[in-house]
Amino acid sequence: MSIEKAEALAREASGEEAGRYPGIALAGAEIDATTIGQTKSENHALIERVVARSNMQRAYQQVMRNHGAPGVDGMRTEDLKSWLVAHWRSVKQALLDGCYMPQSVRKVDIPKPNGGVRTLGVPTVVDRLIQQALHQVMQPLFEPTFSEHSYGFRPNRSAQQAVLRAAQYMREGKRWVVDMDLEKFFDRVNHDVLMSRVRRQVQDEKVLKLIRRYLQAGMMSDGVVEARVEGTPQGGPLSPLLSNILLTDLDRELEKRELAFCRYADDCNIYVNSKRSGQRIMDGVKTFLTKRLKLTVSEAKSAVARPWERKFLGYSVTHNKQTKIRIAPESLKRLKSKVKVLCRQGRGQSVQTTIQRLNPVLRGWINYFQYSQGLRAIEEMDVWVRHRLRDIIWRQWKRPKTRESRLRALGLDAHRAWKSSVNGRGPWWNAGARHMVSACPPKYFTQLGLVSLVVTYQNLQRAI
Description:
Elements: H1 3-10, H2 33-36, H3 40-44, H4 46-50, H5 53-66, H6 80-97, E1 105-111, E2 117-122, H7 125-142, H8 159-171, E3 176-181, H9 185-188, H10 191-198, H11 205-216, E4 219-221, E5 224-226, H12 238-256, E6 260-264, E7 267-272, H13 275-292, E8 303-305, E9 315-317, E10 325-327, H14 329-345, H15 351-368, H16 376-396, H17 400-409, H18 414-421, H19 427-432, H20 434-439, H21 442-447, H22 453-463
Parallel strand pairs: 1-4
Antiparallel strand pairs: 1-2, 3-7, 3-8, 4-5, 6-7, 9-10
Helix pairs in contact: 5-7, 14-15, 14-16, 15-16, 15-22, 17-18
């Protein structure tokens, strides 16, 4: 799974309530033992807990934090409060009566880094609110049933933990990986198979009916609504939880076989001692997924291979006995692509403005890759980012006379400044040339507020 995919899944829009509704701040309650120890009779009245004031308030707060794009009705998160003041009572009653009908989701195609598109289904803000309220009530029911090997979209678990566990398997001698990628998992989920798994913990028929309606809600593209008979589109708060509910059967099967594995949503890696055993396991798991869960393993994206030949959640490993964690080359390329886009957009703006737009991207990237056990790639990325910024600066100094005066102001002597300003070379060449590096050294960009990947990484390493 790519970082972008993980990030897209993790965007759980959410919400808060009404009765005497918004604007009332509540302390967000965490999962606790009393919630997990719910009685069967309470489970039958689960819909009442979904629409309870405190639960809806937490959901509202989460929706507002996540913001998110409008759905098919065009309503923005900023409009949600006033809409709920006017309409929440009737929506709440429809939910309690079991007759609430979700609106269609808006189809959004997101380009994948390796080609193709990923389809997201963006629910309306109101449906995101209700889905988040469902998620908050259902998560405590299912959390105790999930596997220790499952790391995706669960409280106090992360992709980095999955990567660290995978590296530990390799250090223990399991130096072959069964890397499985499910074919369009979120588009191909069988509704009947999924609902049978949901029913194991949820007995409230109104909640079950509501979840199925969300699964079957149409998808609108260019004003045309397409009916859906399978899949649980990415984009709503319920999708990550539903994926874990369905794939827990896979986890239990792998545990029964006493296999070493890590799963993050639909991305599952199994670590073994030999290629032969890996191939046997791959064949067995394919059969299990097809027969039990009605899912298909992608032949093109799955393989039995050496771990250093594959990537897992944006990371890879070095080819040695120490098995050091490193940043996968594809992850470095994706960051460069993002930086290029931001820098092109910044050619007509001040460098400070471009840096302000770059910083959140750089900070988020290095925070995610803080467990990488090598500095070289990070140092090279720092150098490359400064090169891109110098390219912008050189382009903005359009005339030789301007370049000469600016270079002199930045400390170059008159002859060198003049010679550099009329060298006839292009912006990218000049951005990496000695005169620009001397005029705009790393310290120059630090003073402008640019995040240093190396410094941030080193600070994070001290904190680990």
